[in-house]
Amino acid sequence: xxxxxSGVQPTGNLHLGNYLGAIKRFVELQNHYECIYCVVDLxxxxxxxxxxxxxxxxxxxxAAFIAAGIDPRAHIVFNQSQVAEHxxxxxxxxxxxxxxxxxRMTQFKEKAGKHKENASVGLFAYPNLMAADVLAYKATHVxxxxxxxxxxxxxxxxxxxxxxxxxxxxxxxxxxxQFFPLTEPLIAGPAKRVMSLRDGQKKMSKSDPSDYSRIxxxxxxxxxxxxxxxxxxxxxxxxxxxxxxxxxPEAANLxxxxxxxxxxxxxxxxxxxxxxxSRFKQALADLSVEKLSPITAEMRRxxxxxxxxxxxxxxxxxxxxxxxxxILDDVKDVVGFVRST
Length: 341
Ligand code: ATP
Ligand code: MG
Fold this sequence. Notes:
- By secondary structure, this protein is mainly α.
- 54% of the residues lie in helices and 6% in strands.
- It has two domains: 3-192 and 305-335, Rossmann fold (3-Layer(aba) Sandwich); 219-301, Tyrosyl-Transfer RNA Synthetase, CATH 1.10.240.
- The structure holds adenosine-5'-triphosphate (ATP) and magnesium ion.
- Its main location: cytoplasm.
């Protein structure tokens, strides 16, 4: 049985990296899997969020999912805090995962910055909650951008340790050898790691203070064109071969973005645009506007009706809970928690 789970944090401006690395892939997977897509608000508060902004961003991510083409009736769309099973399972995983494992997570190091003592405990334990998100549904596949690869490896380690620690009990209760599946990440394509438009060494991110570092899904056509025109490049023209992008992160990034938007590969893009950057940047701006503006328009329409979005989230949460509840009951039995039946 093949089930997809993935999430996006309601932490601010959704950007092209979120779209190409995650949401666009979510849409494509609908034809092949049973899909559960979550607005992960519990993750969001691992760093401070203004309450009003959090609610607005939660509805905005939901709108982006739907505007991009996710069908909330055929699949499940909901926000994490409405399904308590995520937090419940995360606690169990806090007790399965080891401090040493979490100490190796690069996202914590990046997000906590210099003052690690000041980071929230939640930010440190973030990967355990992410493992719980996926495993509360026994999801088999998780589409994410490359930045989340390490967290998914940790989720596999957690699943494996749980399966081993409780092996006897799991067998006794008739769950066979593997209680939790070892989830496969789905990370592929030319835009699995979209970089900042200002710095080819940093990923495009919602939390980057510079708005010129990213293209937001809510940007209008003029802003998109301006940001692409201003995007950092080097003085060399575009090469004719992919090998020529070696050591040129900014150029490689823009070519990858084009390929992601056009559903092609870098080589095909270079075959068409080898030569001066100006012509390529103009084409990239046009393509970005062509692909994003229908989504932006639909997001604006949807966010104008917050009650309808809330109804979709409530319905999704109920259907998500119906899957997660029995799995959590089994977890409790495995662990030895006494519960009323
Ligand atoms: P934050 O800075 O708050 O962490 P974010 O931009 O990293 O925001 P997330 O909500 O953490 O966004 O991630 C949502 C999804 O988007 C994840 O699957 C993540 O891997 C993917 N993603 C995020 N940034 C990029 C990027 N630059 N390129 C490709 N995929 C990305
Ligand atoms: Mg992130």
